[in-house]
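quick one, two chains, predict together pls
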Amino acid sequence: MVRILMLLMFLVTAIFSWGQKPYIDLQIEPATSEVGQQVIIVLRTNWEGDLEFELPDEFNQSGGVQSGMSSSINYINNQAQVEKYSYQKISGFFEKPGQYKIGPAKLRTPSGELVSNAIVVNVIKPINMISEDPGKNMNEPVFGIIQQSAKQIYEGESVLLEAKMYAQVDIIQIDRFKNLEFQGPSETELLHTSNEVDRDFEIIKGKDVLTFRAGKSIVFPERTGTFEISPFEMSLYCTDARSLYPARVNIKSNESSIKVIPLPDGAPASFVGAVGEFTIASKGKSSEIEQGKVFEMEVEISGIGNTHNIETPKLNLPKGLILYGDPTVETKADFTSRGVEGSKIITYYIQVNRANDVEIPSIEMSYFDPNAVEYKTQTTIPLLLKVIPDENYASTKTNKKEGVEVDAVPVFNGPMLVNTQGKSESVMSLPGFGAITSLPIALAIVMGLFLKYRKENEQEIIVRKTTKNALKRAKDELNKIKEKRGVELVGGLSALLLTYLSEKWNVSTAEITRSLICEKGEQGIIDVPTTNELLALLDVFDGARFGVGAVHSADEMIARTETILVQIDKGHP
Amino acid sequence: MKELVYIMLIFFIGHAFSQTRFDEGVQLLHEKKWEKALSIFEELSDSSSSVAVDYNMGLCYTGQEDLNSAIYFFERALKEEPSNNIIIENVTLAHSKIYPDEYWTHPYAGIERLTLSISVTGWLILSVVFSLLLAWIIFSGILHADKRLGWRLALTIPLWVFILYGSYRAISHQSSEHFCFPKQDIVTTYLSKGGLASEEKLLPGKRHRIDITSDEEWLCIEGPLKQLLWVKREDVYVY
């Protein structure tokens, strides 16, 4: 029974483990922090193994690493799934401003290595805060002063508020804290959690004073005018030199105010209510689209300021393009001490009713820069959209209920962005064109005829070539005989003549007989005088060899042989 | 070989430089700095003109509200790409701003636009390919005394002639001057070269066909009433 139960548990555990995909995840809060501000790094994993994780040298870890197990419920296809994971939490702060890449963390497991995401933390210098002079309150053992980043801001701009305590006695415990409040319509985001306190020591009027700050919040006033900032309150226990027991002190800070002034006149038509510093970029989901289909264009406005409150820029669409429904907006931004940092991605849905390529003109966006106190304008690069025509689609089919005509006033298409190659006129002149087209054909005709002739007279050409070579060899041999003039003169002359004839007539030397010569004479291959002379010359050679008949000088025999060779060569092959 | 490398190097550097200048010009256009952009495109036009350069010059002139010049540069760009709808839209708009009650008409007939839908280079490549094909058919036909040579030629030659004609039209289109536009609001026309001035004036934004009897100093054009008139070449834009 126990064995069966154990086996079942093992199976359940195995199935549970198999069902969960192993992961390691890195989370950092906040992604943008000030120097000295607490940053919390959390590593989560549902697997076990050796963890490899390094932090930048500039990160000053405060306290140890907090680790533990936790679980969460995830809903997948409407079914709750419990996920167990272990975590490690590291807190600390950065000592210098800059951008620090944290991660990826690596977890070495028996089945392989898991790698987490990496996150870049943007560390900025602390924002300068304005406050009343604490030196005026040095008669109080503990006092609080409101800190604020500005006394006057523009409409849409943010102000950073913070509670700061000054203590000339040892603080044992903070009991109750009521943060300051902006007394007016606003959007407020707390940057520090209520239990986060930054401690420091300052010298005021020559005295060491303990300071601690809490309740840092960023406020976006929603109206213009002068607004009060109510005081923060705090109860704390501190040492009392007159008593053995700590004294409980209730502190109420000063009050403050802030003036929100309207934006200056002269806002451009493309002003989208953005106050801060921004850039704009656009991109299409694709570079080509079928006629009648909806093209998605993403416009991303990135920067620091009231990013979350920016209105969508207006599009000037060319004829044949209409906006299809409302654009969707996605904000990827964080509240930081500088405002809202990040981007707003606006996706426009544009129905393409035209059949030809079109350029979507650049989108203009103006914002107010409070540091430069001026309106600035940014533009996107125009997008070239290739349209695949659809013959079955008629532009009149546009659903007027869903489509909204945006631009009734025609505008010029934007510039061409790609410089094409030079004009074609320099490529070729008409005579050049005539030459390149007619030359191959002329060559083909000439070469065709030439090769055809060669093919048809191939045998004759070979015979001619052979005869030419035979004559050359015979003449060479004759020259050698002329030089030597030895006893073998007659034999040599006879042999060269027979060899020449055998090569010319393509027969063996044994076949060269008087009857063959007569036969060739009858066929007209050699003429009658040459035939007779050839037969006579052979008789001379035979007579000389066997010592019969008239005596002929060597020069005469050589001259006659030379002559007969020329005569035979001149004759029909 | 070394010279070839140098030539290629100079070509690539020159191309990269002109592309950078072109991008500068486009950026200035986006910033609506028309005059600066125009000076860059004029400089590029002198060294290596292109459709994009001509078109962007047209845009510079629309920004300066010189619609006559804008129409000229848009139409000059159209000479290379007669079916480019972006250019057609802009030139139509510029024309309608000068003459709200008139429609802009395309300078080239439909058949010519169809012919020019293939670039000159495209036509040349087609011509060379078909010439080589025809040469091969002739060559192999002669060499092997092929009986099929006749019908092969019957099939190929008409196609080859058509391609030759297309190439001829494309090259002639690019290498000859077709139309002119007045540079100023009022351009004097003459009844003969250097002769008496005519009463007919050339109107801004209106193109005039050039007659083939033109020379380097004088242009013989088709006047507003379809009569032949002469103008000084320096007084008109020509493309």
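DSSP finds eight helices and seven strands in chain B.
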